[in-house]
Amino acid sequence: MIYQRYKKEIAMLIGLVIALLFYFFNPFSLAPKSVTVLSIAFAMISWWVLEAAPLAVVALVPIVVFPLLGIATVKEVTKSYSDSTIFLFMGGFFIALAIEKWNLHKRIALGIINITGTNGDRIILGFILATCFLSLWLSNTATTMMMLPIAGSVIHVINKHHNKEGNIKNFSLVLMLSIAYASNFALGTIIGTPPNVAYVAHISERFNYTIGFTNWMLVFMPLTIVMILGLYWVMVKWLYPNKISHSVEGKAFIQEELAKLGKISLSEKRVLIIFGITVFLWIAKDLINGIQKVMVLDDAIIAMAGGLTLFIVSSGTKLNKDLTNEQAEEPNIKEVENHNRLLEWEDTNKMAWGILLMFGGGIALAKALEDAKLLQQLGTYIASFSSTNLLLMILVVTTLSVFLSEVMSNVAQVIVLAPVISSVAIALNMDPLSLGIPMTLGASVASMLPMGTPPNAIVFASGYVKIKDMIKTGFVLNIICIIIITLFCWLLQPYLINLH
Known about the structure:
The protein has a domain at 1-80. By secondary structure, the protein is mainly alpha-helical. Helices cover 73% and strands 0% of the residues. Helix 13 (213-239) crosses helix 25 (467-491).
């Protein structure tokens, strides 16, 4: 009881004690500045892991501590919080808000499910495809939140009208878990999962090398497809067969929901056009930059242009249908309508601003570690115990990353580990991407515990998933993901994307 009551205070104290012990004992005999930076890093990592404070709050610590301890000036530290990668994610958040605001996500999801069919296996396949597609472009947390109520409604209908041979318990469990895992496995775009964004930012910062949106898609979209098909087979055909045959009522429910949405509205069309243009520019950016030099496009510029356009373009909705007749007869009502945009600033109250701060804090910490020459020392130290066998190193890095992310924020994990892994690769004369990318991909696919990723926590809170089921299923999927990522990054990735 006492621990639960003072959990955060105890966690904060543990982080401070770890930092102070390391600082005063200095077991590696580091220089004063180096041991100070590493002590702060231990404190921040401890607070992230133990959830002593919100992730974003911990991420702001460098702004206060670094200048006070002479590690860096305020101006130097705060530059990390305005990195271009942060604005890439911000633009993506704006687009996600608009898609959610105008129910475009629901139309896309129901449309896919309507196409795939209504027996148990096909409904699950429809949800996996819809969730993965949305999560490629939107926050995986937002995608899971969007899909959860739809899944709950479908379970309710199927529960009433499924055949006697069908296993509704397996169906419900798999449907909920599939939403979380399909969100996590959407690795095919840079913005698909937060660790991807964090790693691309690290590579850009440390090696002055930009991994383009198109390049990432071409390389990792096939991996995403393989993992999604593997997810479907493991969940539906192996672990939890449901044997629920075609349901007329289930089909009727999907069609009823689609009918409620009506024809695609003008607002949805405008959001879809802006979304489509943004994706097109991300894909065609390199080609456009190659044929002209007047305007050089960048992923962050494109994302922010798409996001800002949503605040400029009118939604086209008529507000007077929600007003009384007396209000509708007012002469200036059209002027009120003209001010209704696809996104209003009030809509950003739902935005995950904390994630943006998290990136900034991680970049600031990584830069301080690098400036103190700690990462190079650590990389050399780890490399002395490492193998020069690339396959073995990829397997070890991927396995550690997958299981570490079960108990640690995957964004914080990549922010902390990316510089270390890069240094290890350099010390072993390997391409940094050959170890960094499997580490990054592994950080996104944690499947065993609710705290592994936000989507895991969301579906666990639904009540359909028990911890023992998530651990059992997640362990199997973790092993399969480790094998797939290791083989892909060993056999194909070096030939498709590299620093050399």
